[in-house]
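Appendix B. Raw example, untouched.
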Amino acid sequence: MNDLFDCLNSKCLYSFNPKMCALSEERSSQFQFLNEAKTIYENIRLVKPNTKYGYHLPCFDGLVWSINSITMLYLQQKNLQFNYLLTPRLNQNFLENTFAVFRQRGGYNPNPTARTFRSTFSIQAKNNLFKASELSNCESDMDSNLLAPTSDSDSLLSNVNNSDSDSDSSSTLDDDDKSFTNPNDNLEGENCEISLEMCSNAYFAGYLRKSCFDHFKCFKCSKEIDSISCFLKKPIETLINFVKNAQIILKKLVEQKPHRKNIASFIISFLFAN
């Protein structure tokens, strides 16, 4: 019973307990266990019959339905090119909490009508969709990037320069201001697109460089940054590529062999070999 609950409540991609890993074909023992549990609960009988249900309780049928539904859901997701399935939000606790929100909307209403449920579900879905993430200290990433290169950037800069030249008060810009006026100066190419993943990789690479420098006090590491004085110290492209390649290796190893050891040594040997 404990193994079945662990298998139907998997919260992470891999774990020391194979039953608590996400459902995946890489761990065929999970589906074998689910089929065995399904057979047991289909044929289980009480020693003494219940006055209302006889020898077979409805809860056993519920477990069989849960196993069938999760297995069918995984097969459907597999056809959509998803490699694994996490099951914690499919259990009773999360569903009860969700429906409790619907019943409490607009006051206590234990038996909402279909119309009330539909409107309440729509409101709750919209609130969750436009809600800012609680795991970050900023708004949702739905705004346009002011520093991203666009086709109108040159015309925009020319309009700004013209408006400045026509003004009565003349002012001069220092070197720092000039480096900020043109957003394309600090980009690798004119048509490159800055994604959130690129920013995260660069940020983590900078953190990795600082940690290594603070630990080893390497003079060479102190030069492994771009010479830009008015922004955060950006790591060089080699270190950013190191982070990207390490993520690719981790993704392959974790999804295929989650219990494999010596992942760090494998990453080092692979990267230095190439």
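End of appendix B.
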